Amino acid sequence: MKPQGPDWTPPPKDPDNPADVRRILRLFRPYSGRLSVVLVLVVASSLVTVASPFLLRATLDVAIPQGRTGLLSLLALGMIATAVVNSVFNVLQTLISTTVGQRVMHDLRTAVYAQLQRMSLSFFTRTRTGEVQSRIANDIGGMAATVTSTATSIVSNLTSVIAAIVAMLALDWQLTVVSLLLMPVFVWISRRVGRERKKITTERQKQMAAMSSIVTESLSVSGILLGRTMGRADSLTKDFRGESERLVDLEVRSNMAGRWRMSTIGIVMAAMPALIYWAAGIDLHMGGPKVSIGTLVAFVSLQQSLFRPTVSLLQTGVDVQTSIALFQRIFEYLDLPVDITERANPVRLTRVRGDVRFENVDFSYQPAGGQRTLHGIDLDVPAGGSLAIVGATGSGKSTLSYLVPRLYDVTGGRVTIDGVDVRDLAFDTLAEAVGVVSQETYLFHASVADNLRFAKPDATDEELVAAARAAQIHDHIAGLPDGYETLVGERGYRFSGGEKQRLAIARTILRDPPVLILDEATSALDTRTEYAVQDAIDALAAGRTTITIAHRLSTVRDADQIVVLDAGRIAERGTHDELLAMDGRYAALVRRDAQLTPEDEEQLTPVDAPAAG
């Protein structure tokens, strides 16, 4: 199966938008002091470089013909000194400009990562992980050389070009005019090449993102398991080969775009010294003013000092246009609207009791006229109380629970904790107040201890053990080869489903939130494992306000209040006994839930077995 692309697509960009260029320049503003030092070094280096041809002319026209050995020695030392000084200046400016460029790249990476951390859950449900990774790694990495050297290259080459032109005019203005005649044509060619490469670069980065997505999805532990068990390894390899071949084509096109045109510029510039010698000879033959050998050699040397930075400037112009395509892709992420934001002066609660209320709550995944997922939900869960939400798949159970920690924001009504709208609470207060344990347990590729300390970085070893004991996972951890330092493997694949759930519960116990959301935390487990995990959940829920999304109704019969959702509306509410007495939707769900296989019935004790209702 070939993975499909993301539903989210960026708005179209103007390829020649000057605002993008100004925005790129603003990235360098914090480093203006260091760039000023680079500017001084570049100007000094250019002036030193221009001085060398004049020393050469004096050597050929004065020191050698007149046999002035003292002057010859001074001129030779001067040429050596200019080379040494120029090298020192180049090293210093490279060090500073590279540091500035890498800092700008660091700022961009950090800004994109921070922006993505602020995005709502809905963005990530619409966007492939590989696409996000490609923006941070490939796009920002692709502009490294340009960001690092462009500013220095432009200033250095521009200063060298200006200095060379002034010096050439001082030597011979007529030869200078001949040398400059083709410059406008060269500039026009480079701009055409730049636009072409910029377009191809945009396509190439999209293709790299597609490849990154395939790698991320198919080479994860889950992807490998699915591919192997479905017999699709060869098919996935074929899909990857196709994407890679398309990338090869784009890479070749990118490297060859305008190559012949740029090569023509190089050929013409390489031929210019011969044309200058030819023009000087013809001029002399026609009776024109005699040009000394020293002047002619110095002029050709200056001409090369003009052409080298000119070619570099033209190439830099091409690189800049190419990099603008990468910057635009980065700016697309930086400009994403943030749906869930913190108030300017948010409320911070010093002590959270845990009273949770849903007041006439409506919700839609597409706020602008989209179909509502929740309709007029009114619920009150007092501090320390328990609410169970049941219903068919797609009835809105998980969506309702996600409104409490603000994974989504309501589109109507409000959700409050201790009487304060969750939209008014500071993010850190809300994170400390609400803990979530879901059926999709996520563990980092790190040690058990590191995974637990993600909830509380300063937790002591004793606290880790206490949390693990409460979650009934300590004995298992202690029996591992490296105990709490055992590496869990990617997404925790060294642990069973029940063990991962108990690790997640221990992590939540360590954080100690007063409000607990249990989103079908045992639905993916077998019956025997479910009861083991349920004991850990009971320990976690003790004394906390608990909202449970129930898959198996045997786990919620003791809830203070049970709500049955149907198509986003409350169809029934009450205690377990009250709902059974109604003999409505909940009673039907209990009867369905109680239909166990004989094998299941043998594994259950009379106490554990759910009532038929």
UniProtKB/TrEMBL annotation:
**What is a single Pfam family found in this protein's UniProt entry?**
ABC_membrane
Q: Domain ABC transporter, which positions?
A: 356-592
Q: Does the keyword Transmembrane helix apply?
A: yes
Q: Could you say which residues form the signal peptide? A: none
Q: Which ranges does the record mark as transmembrane? A: 35-58, 70-89, 161-189, 260-280
Q: Where is the ABC transmembrane type-1 domain?
A: 37-322
* Cell location: Cell membrane
Per UniProt, the keywords (alphabetical) are: ATP-binding, Membrane, Nucleotide-binding, Transmembrane, Transmembrane helix
Give the matching SUPFAM superfamilies: ABC transporter transmembrane region (SSF90123), P-loop containing nucleoside triphosphate hydrolases (SSF52540)
Q: Which GO terms describe its molecular function?
A: ATP binding
Predominant subcellular localization, coarse grouping: membrane
InterPro entries, per database record:
AAA+_ATPase, ABC1_TM_dom, ABC1_TM_sf, ABC_transporter-like_ATP-bd, ABC_transporter-like_CS, P-loop_NTPase, Type_1_exporter
- Topology with respect to the bilayer: Multi-pass membrane protein
Q: What is this protein called?
A: ABC transporter ATP-binding protein/permease
* Annotated source species: Streptomyces humicola
Give the taxonomic lineage as stored in the record. Bacteria, Bacillati, Actinomycetota, Actinomycetes, Kitasatosporales
